[in-house]
Specification:
The structure holds two protein chains of two kinds. Chain A is mainly alpha-helical. Helix content of chain A is about 80%, strand content about 0%. The chains are: A mainly alpha, B alpha/beta. Chain B: This is ABC transporter ATP-binding protein.
Chain lengths: ~260, ~230
């Protein structure tokens, strides 16, 4: 087994012991189920809680298509609470190794900086992707029973687009975890930056093309309209460049031993 | 085996290493001594790649840090504080170390676990280990992996007298089989019994590197030699 494999196995045992492998998918299951249930039962819930006097509910709300509700799951649940949860789950990836001295200890073994970062990034991205995927399909399950079904090609395509945005989020937090020394600072900078990226979507087509959160918008558009946005390929390419840039900065930072002298 | 030439390192405009020159031959057991702040840990951290030196070259068996993996395979480093995953058992931690060095578990591992009396503790989480037990685990890993050179920063700290005896035996056997040992210590009485050579670091420079018997002669102790050199 090469060092990347060994380090990924180590990451696996670490998340198993931290129960991250259990609570992260559970959070996304909850987020995934919330949107269709709330959308469908909101009028009933309000009625039970004392009537709807003074509150006007859009009568077409429960007539939404499955694609629209699934898009709302991505845009309202995963892109807000979901992103915050990802940041909190990932903020200690490298920072905790730095503060405990484990990073220096591991890097004096026959391990390259690339394998170390690769092990962290690949395993944790897989964990987040599986969690998002499970939440997405739980949402789909409720949508199937409460609303209309979604075309298979659309839901797979949308998930793949969304996972590119998730890849950027994970690599960005990994970079912050290498560069910054305080978990609180990593969380604040991470959450604010990613939420700003998400809020900027739709302001200008040029901005959308270079904004990694544009991939989330493409996923939603695909679910709502069934068509792919014009600048998807440019946005995909730029997001991959952003991801590579975060990995290069992480690599450079660790290689320059800035973890030790900071 | 290990050659250090003109090694320099500065921290906050203070020179810690002022051109360290050291050559360690295969089969040597070198005790690296010096006062607090002399630069011993900085030297060891520079050799193992934790620090980037400002100047100078370090070579192990003709390889430099730029050879990355091949260079790192030449040594096993035991730092002063052994960092572990607290909820991982000693056994899993050693298995992880062995895999990083492309090695499988062998009878050697069981042998060293027994030698250091860690049979009962090895399956417990390392978070429950004492400082000395963590050092024992690192020593077990080092002797099982058997790299060309074992580099240690204060390896005797926290070890009980029996473990010190075991350490002594293991070092001698390891060197007999072709290994080299380089360790820093403040325990000069133990160092003079284990080491074949001694190097004294003062103000970031090696002021003595000699055969230990030759330097002590018949009347001196390593402690008296060290004190004499510190006063000069």
């Amino acid at each position: 087994m090469n060092s990347l494999g060994v380090l990924m196995k180590k990451e696996y045992s670490q998340v198993l012991r931290d129960f991250k492998v259990i609570w992260l998918p559970l959070v996304f299951v909850f987020l995934g189920a919330t949107q269709p249930i709330m959308t469908y039962y909101l009028p009933v819930i309000l009625e039970v809680l004392g009537g709807t006097q003074g509150i006007s509910i859009d009568p077409t709300m429960i007539e939404q298509t499955g694609g629209q509700v699934l898009a709302a799951t991505l845009g309202s649940q995963f892109d807000q609470l979901g992103i915050m949860i990802i940041v909190i789950a990932m903020m200690g990836l490298i920072q905790s190794d730095k503060s405990s001295g484990m990073l220096a200890f591991i890097l004096t073994r026959p391990v390259t900086v690339s394998s170390y970062i690769g092990g962290k990034l690949v395993f944790n991205y897989l964990l987040v992707s599986v969690s998002v995927g499970i939440g997405y399909f739980i949402s789909l399950l409720y949508i199937h029973f409460l609303f209309t079904s979604v075309e298979l090609s659309q839901l797979i395509g949308a998930l793949l687009c969304y996972l590119v945005w998730v890849l950027f989020s994970v690599s960005f937090i990994t970079m912050l975890s290498a560069v910054l020394n305080s978990q609180a600072l990593i969380a604040i900078v991470g959450i604010i930056t990613l939420l700003i990226c998400r809020m900027l979507v739709g302001l200008h087509p040029m901005l959308d093309a270079v904004n990694p959160a544009g991939m989330s918008q493409h996923a939603m558009n695909l679910l709502i309209s069934g068509s792919i946005g014009a600048n998807l390929s440019i946005n995909l390419l730029v997001t991959i460049i952003w991801v590579l840039l975060t990995v290069i900065i992480t690599h450079y930072w660790i290689l320059q031993k800035k973890f030790h002298e900071s | 085996m290990l050659t250090i030439s003109n090694l320099k390192k500065q921290y906050s405009n203070k020179n810690i290493l002022n051109g360290v020159e050291l050559k360690i031959e295969k089969g040597e057991i070198l005790g690296f001594v010096g006062a607090n702040g002399a630069g011993k840990t900085t030297t060891l951290n520079s050799i193992t790649g934790i620090l980037n030196p400002d100047e100078g070259t370090i070579m192990i068996n003709g390889l430099t840090a730029s050879d990355d993996l091949e260079y790192k395979k030449q040594f096993f480093f035991i730092p002063d504080t052994v960092n572990v995953f607290k909820n991982v058992s000693g056994y899993d931690w050693i298995s992880f170390m062995l895999k990083l060095y492309d090695q499988e578990q062998t009878e050697k591992l069981s042998y060293f676990v027994e030698q250091f009396s860690m049979e009962k503790a090895i399956h417990k989480p390392m978070g429950t280990y004492s400082y000395g037990m963590l050092h024992k685990m690192a020593l077990i890993a080092a002797f099982t992996i058997e790299p060309p050179i074992i580099i240690m920063d204060e390896p005797l700290n926290g070890l009980d007298p029996r473990a010190v005896m075991t350490f002594k035996d293991c070092v001698k056997n390891y060197v007999k089989e072709g290994g080299t040992v380089f360790f820093s210590t403040h325990l000069l009485d133990i160092a003079e019994k284990i080491c074949s050579t001694v190097a004294i670091l003062k103000d970031g420079k090696i002021i003595l590197h000699e055969d230990i018997q030759k330097v002590m002669g018949e009347e001196n102790t390593l402690e008296s030699i060290f004190m004499e050199r510190q006063r000069e």
